[in-house]
């Protein structure tokens, strides 16, 4: 089965854990995925954490508590399966295994918020002892309370602090994928799993916290959900969740604790909180008691406002979705209401092109037999439309009156996260009488899917809001921290260590002074001396005194700088998409600098790289090429020119006169008849609209229309086409369906001329080997196929053969026998039957379809790869389609070697990967030129490759490849691949997608980018950045990303520097003031230093500085590697800037003490005094710091002028104002500067210091900058010179030459890499059922239903 490991023997250990009969299909028609998310984490040993060290591993049975108490790990699963079932479990009958209350074991905890005790207390199962009608939500019977759960021991949080941290989603081992990804089972498989006695609950802190915590019951632990038909009051009384969706980070209750936890996880804020507390202790603080706590409050307030505003925007985005319109049946009519008001049990109507507002069971549709088309690209990434069908007994419910009279109930499984399974029963009074009818995934329409090509459907809501399968697959919105923030925390920790060292030195100095020279300091009136108490008093005093080494304004400055950087992204017209009026939206501004350090991009395909719009471009018929648009350099010279390309006008002429007219006629007839497309028109005069399950098929039929063969109607056993105004009817005799193994589809028709013909279309590899020997156009067609593949077009070969009546009758008996095979191998028998008739075909030609990429995708991917970024494509599409798109978007180039991993079991997968890895390592060890590699792996092999014992092997191979494509992957697998790279490679990752199936991947990556589009709303809401097109990723990363990273780095380092340069003077001064703790500067002006006088330069540098222009950053994408390598922000840079601050502070202190020698004797003989010296030093150091800002500025704008010279003007204004104003406030707010202004501004020493000190300090900096640029330049220094002098770039000629070389190499490689354009479903029987269900010659009834 698709979701199980293929170990050959399903009864072996680890085999048929589900206990299903092999004769039954794993999924119902239309629902066969490569893997089942429900199984991935448990059934295979997959690590889903972000941590480098994996969690303790446990077996599957231990993990879900499935092994009886006494059973050993080595006991075989077959022994387990042989144990008897309890006789009173009503859903465990052989004919039908009910997933929620049977031994399917696919239910897990609803969330991690349940403690072990909470979980055990809700351990129940449905046993049928009580009527479902008497118990809302289904009868339940408590089995036990103390059942020990290994899952709880792994996932629950021990201890009160851990519980609090868990509430904030920030445990130490927290991972955003630790939320439940598989549904916890309800134990009814066997009574022998229960211990013989009731176990005692173990006492823990969880026991205490559970007393005060409201217990949340996971609906998956209950029995089946009973939904009453047309009984809103009863349904409402069950208390099921409403239909609102929330992607908010906070709510009213969690905002304060979550915000405070996030803020105080920053070491700087903890540091300032501790300092503020120390300042409140009498006789400890040498500064004012409010100088730290007030700025800290302001910093937190600004951050809180920013966080609230960003979360408010998320709330508004959610509101727009929740307020979407739906039609609910009320009082016999459908009334419009908001999505948020849709409730479980509501009968709703959904019309074409509308998304489903909740999970719905299909009752009826406008199409025959209750059929409808849905698009699930938003769920699983697959582009082809899926067919759903109501059960026959409800298809008559076409009008509101019939729906309103319906009574009965649905017994449904409880909410779970399996997209591909659903089990329920419908009990209702229908036309066929009262009976219990089974409901399967074929009737379930999931939220996130969209109704296509079907005018309307009616259905009943079974799951709403966060209980829908889509939302149960979603993960909690994680709190992401950047690498820069983590390094910043470490740097602040080092500053605190420096502060402690300085405090200890000063404290020891004070103790030595008091111990040896106390008698000389009698004028200080010192208290009694005790070395121990004095040590702690001093160390706290100096802690407060030196606390300004850590800039308190740094974090609020960073928050505001990042906010404005996000605003620049939002307002950039270069990444504004005018077609849909979609600007870029940076939802999480705290991550902007990580956009400049990305090394891996994980991209969805459908809707992200492609438009999902197929267009018929070219075809080859009888060895002659035709195209809609003919390039001038390839235009044919005449009707017989075989080397050129003809237009469709020539094609229509050749249809009548050319020797290839026979091939042209049947080529067109094949395109118009051999498909599963349904024609639809509102009335006889309206244009036909083709309903296609696959966009490929739709494009082929449209292509036939362009060439004069119009498909007009379909009957159950015939197809009608229109050729030159005349209708022709082709009688359908048999269909040999397409699947991924056959790679072809054949239809057998009795043509209008009475002859029987087989029309076959498929991949060139399978068609060419079934041709007769006398096909003369094979070589020419192969050359055309290579040309098409070189252009990235998707190709199909078309062939036909006439069949005699006798041959057909004999074959039909073989086919009918195969179709009635019982025993599980019907599909194989049908394939063998098809082989009997599909031989000796005549090649008609080939088609070329363009799966249109979004504008600029190839150039964007090529540029990103040039920038050193590895691009991985994770898609739900099949392998051939993914490879085609990879080639057309330049992810896979012609000079790459493809490594394909497509195995059916773990052993084969390991062997395949190991052999490829050994070959790559062997080639690299020999030296010389290495092949450029691209890895392609399918979903089933990826399941095995992600197991713990194989993941490192897989990753070692993947990282050696320039490109990786993972196809047929589930949403969960996308997230697991991202986490695998995060965990082992230690590189920054970015995930980009447009659908709900990409949300987990987007949230798992360091940075998530959502495409805002038709299908992209869910992804865009969950992403950190939303853009309109994939091509905008280029400027987002290469320009805004590297700008943000360089600016943030400079802001942080400059902020450290300016504080050290100013406040280290306090330390040097302590050697002259007998370590008394005396300050140089007035305490409030110390605080104003970061708040007023040096706050603007970091803003100017952080928002407007450009170390290289946007044009050159885009022209030279290699510069992006500066961010990947951490060039601008590393520990070396930190220590360099700290050392520079130390250097400037000691130079400033020596100069100032020399200039103000002997207390600064003035011309009138008076001493200038302490505060004149202190404020003169303050002014001079401020000039040094502002001069340093000017020296490191790359580009001068008006904002830099306002910020740097303007800051000094602010000082010249505020300093006198404060000096006069502070003493006059109340009883003297601050009196230290009373009368200082006339003295300081008339003192020549003040001006001498302001003129001499800045050049003395900055001379070394200027010399270092000159030497570095002139003699040791880095790459970006050269680009700055190119920018400054506008040097011409001659590289385009070389690039043209390289393109020509690549073009030559293409022809040699493309033949083996061609794919085919066919993405119809693999499901057996679906195509035949579709072709025989429709009769489009009939009209429609009163309610739009097909008659």
Automatic annotation (TrEMBL):
Binding locations of Mg(2+): 604, 606, 994, 998
InterPro entries in alphabetical order: ATPase_P-typ_cyto_dom_N, ATPase_P-typ_P_site, ATPase_P-typ_TM_dom_sf, ATPase_P-typ_transduc_dom_A_sf, ATPase_P-type_domA, HAD-like_sf, HAD_sf, P-type_ATPase_IV
Span of domain P-type ATPase N-terminal: 227-293
Entry's transmembrane regions: 290-309, 492-515, 535-558, 1051-1071, 1091-1113, 1134-1156, 1168-1187, 1199-1221, 1233-1259
EC number: 7.6.2.1
Cofactor: Mg(2+)
Membrane-topology annotation of the record: Multi-pass membrane protein
PROSITE patterns for the chain: ATPASE_E1_E2
Compartments (UniProt record): Golgi apparatus, trans-Golgi network membrane; Membrane
Pfam families per UniProt: Cation_ATPase, E1-E2_ATPase, PhoLip_ATPase_C, PhoLip_ATPase_N
Polar residues compositional bias, start-end: 1-12, 51-60
UniProt family annotation: Belongs to the cation transport ATPase (P-type) (TC 3.A.3) family. Type IV subfamily.
Name recorded for this polypeptide: Phospholipid-transporting ATPase
Organism: Knufia fluminis
Protein's gene: DRS2
């Amino acid at each position: 089965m698709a979701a199980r490991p293929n170990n050959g023997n399903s009864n072996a250990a680890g085999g048929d854990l589900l206990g299903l009969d092999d004769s039954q299909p794993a999924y119902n028609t239309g629902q066969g995925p490569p893997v089942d998310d429900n199984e991935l984490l448990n059934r295979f040993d997959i690590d889903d954490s972000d941590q480098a060290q994996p969690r303790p591993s446990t077996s599957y049975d231990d993990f879900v508590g499935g092994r009886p108490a006494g059973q050993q790990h080595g006991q075989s699963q077959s022994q387990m399966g042989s144990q008897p079932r309890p006789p009173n479990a009503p859903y465990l009958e052989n004919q039908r295994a009910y997933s929620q209350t049977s031994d399917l074991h696919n239910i897990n905890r609803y969330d991690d918020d349940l403690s072990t005790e909470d979980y055990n207390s809700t351990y129940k199962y449905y046993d049928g002892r009580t009527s479902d009608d008497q118990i809302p939500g289904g009868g339940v019977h408590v089995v036990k309370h103390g059942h020990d759960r290994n899952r709880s021991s792994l996932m629950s949080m021990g201890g009160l602090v851990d519980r609090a941290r868990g509430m904030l989603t920030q445990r130490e081992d927290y991972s955003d994928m630790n939320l439940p990804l598989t549904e916890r089972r309800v134990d009814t498989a066997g009574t022998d799993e229960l211990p013989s006695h009731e176990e005692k609950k173990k006492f823990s802190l969880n026991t205490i916290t559970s007393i005060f915590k409201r217990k949340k019951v996971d609906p998956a632990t209950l029995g089946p959900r009973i939904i009453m038909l047309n009984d809103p009051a009863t349904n409402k009384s069950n208390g099921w969740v409403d239909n609102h969706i929330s992607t908010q980070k906070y709510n009213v209750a969690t905002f304060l604790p979550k915000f405070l936890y996030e803020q105080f996880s920053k070491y700087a804020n903890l540091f300032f909180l501790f300092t503020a507390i120390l300042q409140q202790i009498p006789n400890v603080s040498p500064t004012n008691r409010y100088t730290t706590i007030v700025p800290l409050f302001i910093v937190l307030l600004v951050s809180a406002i920013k966080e609230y505003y960003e979360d408010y925007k998320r709330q508004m985005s959610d509101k727009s979705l929740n307020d979407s319109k739906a039609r609910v049946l009320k009082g016999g009519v459908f009334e419009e209401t908001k999505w948020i008001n849709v409730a479980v049990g509501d009968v709703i109507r959904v019309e074409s092109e509308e998304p489903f507002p909740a999970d719905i069971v299909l009752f009826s549709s406008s199409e025959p037999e209750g059929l409808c088309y849905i698009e699930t690209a938003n769920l699983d990434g697959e582009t082809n439309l899926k067919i759903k069908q109501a059960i026959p007994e409800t298809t008559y419910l076409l009008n509101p009156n019939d729906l309103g009279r319906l009574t009965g109930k649905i017994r449904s499984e409880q909410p779970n996260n399996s997209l591909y399974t659903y089990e329920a029963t419908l009990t209702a009074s229908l036309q066929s009488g009262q009976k219990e009818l089974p409901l399967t995934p074929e009737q379930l329409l999931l939220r996130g899917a969209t109704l296509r090509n079907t005018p309307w459907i009616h259905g009943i809501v079974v799951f709403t809001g966060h209980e829908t399968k889509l939302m149960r697959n979603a993960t909690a919105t994680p709190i992401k921290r950047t690498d820069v923030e983590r390094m910043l925390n470490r740097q602040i920790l080092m500053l605190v260590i420096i502060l402690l060292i300085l405090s200890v030195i000063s404290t020891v100095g004070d103790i030595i002074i008091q111990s040896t020279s106390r008698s000389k300091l009698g004028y200080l009136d010192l208290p009694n001396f005790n070395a121990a108490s004095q040590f702690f008093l001093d160390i706290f005093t100096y802690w407060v005194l030196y606390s300004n080494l850590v800039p308190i304004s740094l974090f609020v400055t960073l928050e505001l700088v990042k906010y404005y950087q996000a605003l620049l992204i939002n307002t950039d017209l270069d990444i504004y998409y005018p077609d849909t009026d979609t600007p870029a939206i940076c939802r999480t501004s705290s991550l902007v600098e990580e956009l400049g350090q990305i090394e891996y991009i994980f991209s969805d395909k459908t809707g992200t790289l492609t438009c999902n719009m197929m267009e018929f471009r070219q075809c080859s018929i009888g060895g002659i090429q035709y195209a809609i648009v003919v390039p001038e350099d390839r235009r044919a010279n005449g009707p017989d020119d075989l080397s050129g390309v003809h237009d469709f006008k020539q094609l229509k002429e050749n249809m009548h006169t050319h020797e290839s007219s026979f091939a042209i006629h049947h080529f067109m007839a094949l395109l118009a008849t051999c498909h599963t497309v349904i024609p639809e028109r509102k009335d006889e005069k309206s244009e036909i609209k083709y309903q296609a399950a696959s966009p490929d098929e739709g494009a082929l039929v449209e292509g036939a229309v362009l060439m004069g063969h119009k498909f007009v109607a379909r009957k159950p056993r015939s197809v009608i086409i229109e050729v030159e105004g005349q209708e022709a009817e082709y009688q359908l005799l048999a269909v040999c369906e397409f699947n991924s193994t056959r790679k072809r589809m054949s239809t057998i028709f009795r043509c209008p001329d009475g002859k029987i013909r087989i029309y076959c279309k498929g991949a060139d590899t399978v068609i060419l080997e079934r041709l007769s020997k006398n096909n003369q156009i094979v070589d020419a067609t192969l050359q055309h196929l290579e040309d098409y593949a070189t252009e990235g077009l998707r190709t199909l070969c078309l062939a036909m053969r006439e069949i005699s009546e006798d041959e057909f009758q004999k074959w039909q008996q073989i086919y009918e026998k195969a179709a009635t095979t019982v025993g599980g191998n019907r599909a194989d028998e049908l394939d063998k039957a098809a082989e009997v008739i599909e031989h000796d075909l005549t090649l008609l030609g080939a088609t070329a379809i363009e799966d249109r990429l979004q504008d600029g995708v190839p150039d964007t991917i090529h540029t990103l790869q040039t920038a050193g970024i590895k691009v991985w494509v994770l898609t739900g599409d099949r392998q051939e389609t993914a490879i085609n798109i990879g080639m057309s978007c330049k992810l896979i180039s012609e000079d790459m070697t493809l490594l394909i991993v497509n195995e059916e079991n773990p052993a084969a997968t390991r062997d395949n990967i190991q052999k490829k890895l050994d070959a790559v390592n062997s080639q690299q060890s020999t030296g010389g030129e290495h092949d450029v590699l691209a890895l392609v792996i399918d979903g089933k092999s990826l399941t095995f490759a992600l197991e713990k014992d194989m993941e490192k092997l897989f990753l070692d191979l993947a990282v050696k490849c320039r490109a990786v494509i993972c196809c047929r992957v589930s949403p969960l697998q996308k997230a697991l691949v991202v986490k695998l790279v995060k965990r082992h490679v230690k590189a920054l990752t970015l995930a980009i997608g447009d659908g709900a199936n990409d949300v987990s991947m987007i949230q798992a990556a360091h940075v998530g980018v959502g495409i805002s589009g038709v299908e992209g709303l869910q992804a865009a809401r969950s992403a950190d950045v939303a853009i309109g097109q994939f091509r905008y990723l280029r400027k987002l990363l290469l320009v805004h990303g590297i700008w943000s990273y360089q600016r943030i780095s400079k802001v942080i380092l400059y902020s450290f520097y300016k504080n050290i340069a100013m406040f280290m003077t306090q330390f040097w001064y302590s050697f002259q003031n007998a370590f008394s703790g005396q300050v140089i500067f007035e305490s409030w002006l110390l605080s104003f230093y970061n708040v007023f006088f040096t706050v603007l330069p970091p803003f100017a540098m952080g928002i407007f500085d450009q170390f290289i222009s946007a044009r050159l950053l885009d022209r030279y994408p290699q510069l992006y590697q500066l961010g990947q390598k951490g060039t601008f922000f590393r520990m070396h840079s930190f220590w360099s800037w700290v050392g520079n601050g130390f250097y400037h502070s000691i130079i400033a202190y020596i100069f100032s003490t020399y200039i103000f020698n002997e207390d600064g004797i003035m011309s009138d003989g008076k001493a200038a005094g302490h505060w004149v010296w202190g404020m003169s030093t303050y002014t001079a150091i401020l000039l040094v710091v502002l001069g340093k800002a000017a020296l490191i500025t790359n580009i001068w704008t008006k904002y830099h002028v306002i910020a740097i010279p303007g800051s000094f003007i602010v000082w010249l204004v505020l300093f006198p104002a404060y000096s006069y104003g502070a003493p006059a406030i109340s009883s003297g707010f601050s009196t230290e500067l009373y009368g200082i202004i006339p003295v300081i501004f008339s003192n020549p020493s003040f001006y001498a210091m302001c003129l001499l000190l800045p050049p003395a300090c900055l001379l070394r900096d200027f010399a270092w900058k000159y030497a570095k640029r002139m003699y040791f330049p880095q790459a970006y220094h050269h680009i700055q010179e190119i920018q400054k002098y506008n040097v011409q770039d001659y590289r385009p000629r070389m690039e043209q030459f390289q393109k020509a070389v690549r073009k030559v190499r293409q022809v040699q490689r493309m033949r083996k890499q061609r794919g085919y354009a066919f993405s119809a479903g693999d499901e057996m029987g679906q195509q035949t059922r579709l072709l025989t269900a429709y009769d489009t010659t009939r009209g429609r009834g009163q309610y739009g239903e097909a008659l």
